[in-house]
């Protein structure tokens, strides 16, 4: 699923609580990510990039993460990443690296935090498109839409396991907090 720039900026905003001082660097202030996040430099984050387009790319990506020792991970989601979410979440936990994901399924699996489009809203909007097509609309004539409802989910069990403190402002904005 493609995500617009609004979400990418939202990820760095959520990472920092919209306050550049909210994320303190334990090592060197680097955050690992998989796409460019234009607001990152504005909040004092240095970004590194790696891709795992195929399942066989994951061990190399994991090795790169271990070597570069980032303070946090921002994991964008595709079919490969989603299908290997359990091993990705376990990797982040074993290495004590906070990770933010684009889908709540990762947080349900034990990941720290997710921020992404609300899947129920997307399916509701898809149903509206199907209805229009069934009633005779040409798909090419329908406007392309970006997600408008995003959800923030925080796993407090993972927060405690990583020894982190989540700012109250982020917990207050969370759509769901898993105890």
CATH topology description of the largest domain: Rossmann fold
**What is the average of the pLDDT values?**
77
Strand content: 15-25%
Note the run of SSEs as H and E: HEEHEHHEHEHEHHE
Shape: globular
Kindly state the percentage of residues in helix. Answer: 25-40%
Tell me the span between the first and last alpha carbons: 28 Å
Q: Which CATH C-level class of the largest domain is it?
A: Alpha Beta
Structural class: alpha/beta
Largest sheet: 7 strands, mixed
Summed up, the domain count is 2
CATH superfamily of the largest domain: Response regulator
Radius of gyration: 17 Å
Q: So how many helices?
A: 8
Main β-sheet, spatial strand arrangement: 2-1-3-4-5-6-7
The tally of beta strands, per DSSP, is 7
Low-confidence stretches: 1-12, 16-35
List keywords for this structure.
globular, 179 residues, Rossmann fold, alpha/beta, 8 helices, 16% strand
Topology:
Layout: H1 5-16, E1 30-33, E2 46-49, H2 58-68, E3 72-75, H3 79-83, H4 85-94, E4 99-101, H5 104-108, E5 113-117, H6 119-134, E6 150-155, H7 156-161, H8 168-173, E7 176-178
Parallel strand pairs: 1-2, 1-3, 3-4, 4-5, 6-7
Antiparallel strand pairs: 5-6
Word description of this protein:
- This protein is of the alpha/beta class and 179 residues long.
- Helix content is 40%, strand content 16%.
- The protein has a seven-stranded mixed β-sheet with strand order 2-1-3-4-5-6-7.
- It is globular.
- It starts with a helix and ends with a strand.
């Amino acid at each position: 699923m493609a995500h617009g720039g609004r979400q990418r900026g939202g990820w760095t905003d959520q990472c920092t609580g919209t306050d550049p001082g909210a994320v303190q660097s334990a090592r060197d202030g680097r955050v690992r990510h998989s796409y460019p996040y234009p607001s990152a430099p504005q909040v004092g984050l240095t970004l590194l990039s790696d891709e795992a387009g195929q399942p066989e790319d994951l061990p190399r990506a994991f090795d790169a993460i271990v070597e570069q020792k980032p303070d946090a991970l921002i994991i964008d989601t595709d079919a490969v990443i989603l299908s290997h979410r359990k091993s990705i979440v376990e990797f982040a936990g074993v290495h004590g690296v906070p990770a933010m994901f684009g889908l709540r399924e990762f947080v349900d699996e034990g990941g720290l935090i997710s921020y992404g489009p609300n899947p129920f809203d997307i399916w509701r909007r898809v149903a509206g498109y199907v209805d229009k097509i069934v009633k005779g609309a040409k798909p090419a004539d329908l406007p392309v839409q970006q997600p408008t409802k995003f959800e923030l989910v925080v796993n407090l069990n993972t927060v405690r396991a990583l020894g982190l403190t989540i700012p109250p402002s982020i917990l207050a904005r969370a759509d769901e907090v898993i105890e």
